[in-house]
Structure formats: structure tokens, C-alpha cells
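Q: Is it fine to ask for two folds in a single conversation?
A: Yes, each is treated on its own. Send the first.
Q: Here.
A: Result:
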Amino acid sequence: MSYKVVIPIDGCKDETEFELTKLDDFFSVIKGNDTGITLRLMSFGALKSLAFELPEDFKNKLEIKSIEDISIFYIFVLQTQVSESSMNIFSPVIINEKSKKMGQIHLNLEELGLESLNDILPSL
């Protein structure tokens, strides 16, 4: 399924459209139609640790009418050594399944009521 980029994805400023391929219930891949760049995604449902609201401007650009219309993904970087892999949970990619538009939003720790990453990590 192809999605038009209406808010740029970090590292992909020249990309205007991505093709999404779902790998399983949690993982997907997007491939740029212009540049061929490939990004790995993990679905929001796999790690529901944050609650946030989308700004009106963002919702308007993606034509979001209902929360049920969107899918939320985290970009992750898979390294050969698994312990060096990373995921950016504070800059999710939002896809509107109805309008076929997508973009990336950058969340602010303070606006989320978090002082540090430790606020969302489980206690030992």
C-alpha cells in the first residue's frame, strides 16, 4: 500500500511516497518510491507506553478525522549486534489509512509530563 508523505520523515526529506509492507502483527517495512530508502517499523500496539495528542496542524495535513483511521509506528534500527539496535519512540510515524497520507511527529518529553526516559521504564 502506498502513502503520500505530507510531513517529512527524518533522513528522507526528498521522499514523497512510501510503500508499506506488513511483515507480521508488529513489524513492517516502508520503502521510498523516489529514493529506494528502506526503514523498519514497529507498530505502536507492540509498545503502548506513551499517550499523546496530535496537533491540529498535523491532523489537518494528514486529514485525520478519527483515531481509528490511523496507524502509529516507531522507526527502529536493527544492528548486527542486537544490543546496539535502537528505536525512536519520541518521533513516531503516523499513517492515515483512509487518506493514504503519512508523516512523522516529534514528541516533547516535557509536554508528555516526563522529565526523563526513566519515567516510562519499568522499575526494578
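Q: Second one now.
A: Result:
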Amino acid sequence: MAFGFKVKQDTASSAEKLLVVNQNRCPQNHPCPSVRVCPTGALTQSGFHAPTAEQDKCIRCGKCVKFCPMHALTLE
């Protein structure tokens, strides 16, 4: 703990991580707000279904993860 904050050690480099969509956390009843913030278009959505991540387009910047209000997106 540093200054009262827990520090999480990142064991995998960001290049090795995959963008994961947790369909159980995604409400799938509205346009996904995280799709709009993806700078490469790696996150897409068909109708109101859970978004789909195109791993080859994803640069693992984490913008979509931070923007998801339901915390349904993770980089693992």
C-alpha cells in the first residue's frame, strides 16, 4: 500500500491483454456509450445487443473500459 492506496501490479503487458465484454453486466437495452469513444472503431454494436470487440483493431487504450457505466468491459 502506498499512501493508503492499494497498488495493483500489472502482470501482463497491455499488448497481451484482450478486451472482454461481460454480457451479464451489459444491460443490452440502449446504444452502448463506450462504442462512441473507441478511437479505432474496435468496439461495435448491432442493435441493442452487447457490443463486440474486434481484437485486431483494439489498441488497448482502455477508453471504452473507463467509459462503460456498467463496468461490463475489461482488459484481461
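Q: Anything structural to flag on that second result?
A: Two points. Residues 33-37 form the longest helix (5 residues). Residues 16-75 form a domain with the Alpha-Beta Plaits fold (CATH 3.30.70.20).
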